[in-house]
Specification:
With 208 residues, the chain is α/β, with parallel strands linked by helices. The chain has one domain (17-205): Rossmann fold (3-Layer(aba) Sandwich). Helix content is 51%, strand content 11%. The chain has helices at residues 17-27, 50-78, 99-118, 138-142, 147-152, 159-169, 181-192, 194-205; strands at 32-35, 81-86, 124-131, 176-179. It has a 4-stranded parallel β-sheet with strand order 1-2-3-4, sandwiched between helices. Helix 1 packs parallel to helix 2 (50-78) and helix 2 (50-78) runs parallel beside helix 3 (99-118).
Length: 208
């Protein structure tokens, strides 16, 4: 933040439209929107509760869409803006025990890619950020057994590193940020050879 800048903090639940409206009235207009709210629960589909499934989509997808819709009109009026949607490598590589979370992040990527084309002539840029596992409290809810964190601890990203990449991309035309880079190579292999990838990686991915 530059010297003399002011930071406004507004608490809200992105699954509640009235909260989004109130927060926008408090801090708007918005030049750069970072849609970062989200959570996951790692469970087999047959064991997951419908309530948790619905809640994941309300926060990860519909909350993100609602926040985005709120800022677009004024960004268009100004002829500039940046929407940064935090997706996940899980949106590119579906894994066992995260079917609903992966589905929600697939939705974020699909929404963002379509929105980018819709806003191409408006001066508003759309960036997606697809990180692998990040060392945050996310896993307190997502990984109740603690097994997943044990298995991926060696590849955990620091929150500061991810945040730094996001800040560096602000007000640029960067389409996508993938972290770590080698994991993005894995997602490309998955797209090219899904059967082989799933067969080879299934057992390892079940360890959540």
């Amino acid at each position: 933040m530059s010297a003399g800048g002011v930071c406004h903090i507004a608490q809200l639940d992105v699954s509640q439209l009235e909260d989004i409206d109130r927060a926008y009235e408090e801090v708007g207009p918005v030049d750069i929107l970072v849609n970062n709210a989200g959570f996951g629960v790692f469970d087999l589909v047959e064991d997951a509760s419908i309530e948790e499934m619905v809640s994941m989509f309300e926060v990860n997808v519909f909350g993100l869409i609602a926040c985005t819709k709120k800022v677009i009109p004024e960004m268009k009026q100004r002829g500039q803006g940046h929407i940064i949607n935090i997706a996940s490598q899980a949106g590119k590589i579906a894994t066992p025990k995260s079917a609903i979370y992966s589905a929600s992040k697939h939705a974020v990527l699909g929404f963002s890619n379509s929105l980018r084309m819709e806003l191409a002539d408006s001066g508003i840029h759309v960036t997606t950020v697809n990180p692998g596992p990040i060392a945050t409290d996310f896993f307190t809810i997502a990984d109740r057994s603690g097994e997943y964190v044990k298995n991926v601890d060696f590849m955990m990203l620091s929150a500061d590193k991810v945040a730094g990449k996001v800040v560096s991309a602000m007000m640029t035309k960067k389409r996508e940020i993938n972290l770590p880079g080698w994991m993005n190579a894995g997602s490309k292999l998955y797209q090219l050879f899904p059967f082989l990838f799933e067969k080879a990686a299934r057992k390892a991915m079940m360890k959540k």
